[in-house]
Amino acid sequence: DVKVTQSSRYLVKRTGEKVFLECVQDMDHENMFWYRQDPGLGLRLIYFSYDVKMKEKGDIPEGYSVSREKKERFSLILESASTNQTSMYLCASSDWNQPQHFGDGTRLSIL
Amino acid sequence: EDQVTQSPEALRLQEGESSSLNCSYTVSGLRGLFWYRQDPGKGPEFLFTLYSAGEEKEKERLKATLTKKESFLHITAPKPEDSATYLCAVQAPIQGAQKLVFGQGTRLTINP
What we know:
- The structure holds 2 protein chains of 2 kinds.
- Chain A is about 0% helix and about 55% strand.
- Chain A contains no helices and 11 strands.
- In chain A, the strands form 2 sheets. In chain A, strands 2, 4, 5, 6, 9, 10 and 11 form a 7-stranded mixed β-sheet that branches.
- In chain A, a hairpin with a 6-residue loop joins β5 and β6 (about 55).
- The radius of gyration of chain A is 13 Å and the shape is globular.
- Chain B is an all-beta fold.
- Helix content of chain B is about 0%, strand content about 60%.
- Chain B is built from no helices and 11 strands.
- In chain B, the strands form 2 sheets. In chain B, strands 2, 4, 5, 9, 10 and 11 form a 6-stranded mixed β-sheet that branches.
- The mean pLDDT of chain B is about 95.
- Classes of the chains: A mainly beta, B mainly beta.
- The interface between A and B is medium-sized, with 28 and 24 residues.
């Protein structure tokens, strides 16, 4: 079975902090994705990567950056956390033209 | 613009009471339609992929169907453990990869 592991289930940070969310997949997938999920807005794509060191903006990249130094690891970075970034963050991975498989999410609160 | 609309937002059924969830979509060049199940506090779990109108997929009490404008998730004789939020997503091409556009989900509750 595909396993996508997100480093923290719950995280509380302060406004202005730099925040790192980590995601690791064990299936040698080419593609990795970061989403946020908010009530009434559904899942929205923040960034994705289709290869090591490659990254592309999704629908809502403002305030975020990403890093993919190794194929199995994809990091989401909040450069200067703000309260409107309080959300559930979901990481996913897939091979080309295959279903995306998700981790269990990180519930991030920015105070 | 690619768009997915799911209805109803919430559905409450008695155990054994069959029903259907709807997913309407507009996308420029459908590459696939996906159904996921999401339990509270968990990430979405993949259920089905449908690629072309007329296609059907089944898994236990669930059956997904696809037309050119919508998909249905039919639930036959549901049990309380089928309670979850069901998400529909369409796949559209994006540079170097493929993007999923999600609907807002249908929250299904099955009462014993």
